[in-house]
Amino acid sequence: MPLRRTLVAALTAACLFPPLAGAAETAKLTVTGASTLAPLVSEIAHRFENANPGVRIDVQTGGSSRGVADVRRGIADIGMVSRVLKPDEDDLTVNIVARDGVGMIVNTANPVDPLSRDQVIGIYTGRITNWSQIGGPDRPITVVNKAEGRSTLDIFLEHVQLKPTDVKAHIVIGDNEQGVKVVAGNPWAIGYVSIGTAEYHAQAGTPVRLMALGPVVATTGNVANGTYGAARPLNLVTAKPPEGVAARFIAYSQSPAVHDLIHDQYFVPAPR
Amino acid sequence: MSIDALRRRRTARVVDAAVWGVPAITVAALAWLLADVVWHGAGQIDLAFLTTAPRSAGRAGGIAPMLVSTAIVVAIAVAVALPLAVGTAVLLVEVLPPSASAGRWIRRSLDILAGMPSIVFGLFGNLVFCTMLGMGFSLLSGGLTLACMVLPILMRAAEESLRGVPDGCRRGALALGMPRHRAITAVILPCGMPGIIDGLTLGVGRAMAETAALVFTSGYVDRMPSALTDSGRTLAVHVFDLSMNVTGGDRWAYATALVLIGLLLVTAGLLSLASRFLQRKGAHKP
């Protein structure tokens, strides 16, 4: 059967020379899932498209669970999942792209250090209302919380095991930048932000100090190596081990070529 | 002056204050909202913002693809929903007798449709247009979903408006020997046009500002669309994404929101001009 033989030969050649096969390809990938990851993956996709003419990557949102469901049903090639995969999701292939960690921030004028997990819970539930109760000066605590729907709120609540309704906040803010601004402008405020944002500002001279949420020191390094507890992985998942363009896109997302994009979203690149 | 008269005068003053105070609060709420958006957003807006694609997840570059996507999605919605709405209104007002049970059923179902949360339209559109009809995440899916959503608004406005057309107009048209369909197209619809256009303004406003119904239908892709089958992010979805998912995106969210509000005002203005023009044209008709 010459036709079949030709086909086999062509396929073998394609497998042997993936760069050649890739050079002429036109492909469309659909990526769906976590809205936390969507802006980052969109930016990575734009850069990948520029480097690979003919490839088109459509990024859609809808939440981590949707990413998992769409990949399983074959609607999406790649799913975005911004949490640890559940035990019943072990049929999927997981590729970590980045991590997102949350640390507490206080003003540099505030001498209280460190804070235990119980003290943080006390402050956020209204049991501790004055810094003097935990070894600081006699000043009332201004509690800064994140607005509903923020991913950092989810990580924080999960780590301190509180429900959204348990939190007694004085100020509710939107993004990390706003959190840094509030705490920088109020010596007796406490808040929590992405560790990437806090480190950037601490180095840039903004009067904020980053404190750990848990026993491990809050650094982007500890978030990256997975030892810091109040963090979560940002994953790209596929139904089967990825092949072709999908595999190349995932590998690209994990490569140093996109680390600047990951930093731009205040996440931490994860070592492969 | 008697105590009674004094008391009456005081009551009158309180009522006066209430009568002026309540609308003042309404206007103040709008002014506050506009001032907030202008204050935070105006600084980012320039020509480049309106004519380039976004970079860095919307924190640089512009919103050109979103402007185009929004225009296309809203145009599809209006093109599909308006004929259906006006047709249904003509059926209800001009054809069916007022007591017809079919009319009641149509009205009832449209009222239920009008009260539906928009996320339900989003899930419905995703299931029906994207998945069952195979359109995928596309401007077409988004536009059709919005059409379902604004249909009750347009229909109700058209119906009220046609009902408001004086019976004299109908009788006059028929007395001149016009056939029924000619009376509807030449006399009744032009008379009802201002009301229909008011409804259109409301519907377009709702469509432009929609996020929940569009995230799952026209989607999130921030590329310039090149076909109706492409996914495209609308302005409202972009605002939502910038304010909820992008760190440092707040200023850009405000800027985009300001453009969206400006677009709404311009559309409302144009539609009101069109309404006035049509009325004048209608008046000159023999």
List the SSEs and their pairings.
The complex is a heterodimer of chains A (272) and B (286).
Chain A lengths: L1 H15 L1 H6 L3 E7 L4 H14 L3 E7 L2 H10 L4 E4 L11 E15 L9 H9 L16 E5 L4 H10 L10 E3 L2 H10 L3 E6 H10 L3 E4 L8 H5 L6 E8 L5 H10 L5 H6 L3 E2 L3
Parallel strand pairs in A: 1-2, 1-3, 5-6, 5-7
Antiparallel strand pairs in A: 3-9, 4-7, 4-8, 4-9, 4-10
Chain B lengths: L2 H39 L5 H5 L2 E2 L4 E2 L2 H32 L5 H15 L2 H15 L6 H25 L3 H9 L4 H29 L3 H4 L19 H10 L5 H35 L2
Antiparallel strand pairs in B: 1-2
Helix pairs in contact in B: 1-11, 3-6, 3-8, 4-6, 5-6, 6-8, 7-8, 8-11, 10-11
Characterization of this structure:
- The complex is a heterodimer of chains A (272) and B (286).
- By secondary structure, chain A is of the alpha/beta class.
- Chain A has eleven helices and ten strands.
- In chain A, strands 1, 2, 3, 4, 5, 6, 7, 8, 9 and 10 form a ten-stranded mixed beta sheet that branches.
- In chain A, strand 5, helix 6 and strand 6 form a beta-alpha-beta unit.
- Chain B is built from eleven helices and two strands.
- Chain B folds into two domains: 42 residues; 172 residues, MetI-like (MetI-like fold), CATH 1.10.3720.
- Helices cover 76% and strands 1% of the residues of chain B.
- In chain B, strand 1 and strand 2 form a beta hairpin.
- Chain B has 286 residues and is mostly helical.
- Chain B starts with a helix and ends with a helix.
- At the A-B interface, helix 3, strand 2 and helix 7 of A face helix 10 of B.
- Chain A: This is Phosphate ABC transporter substrate-binding protein (PhoT family).
- Chain A: It comes from Azospirillum brasilense.
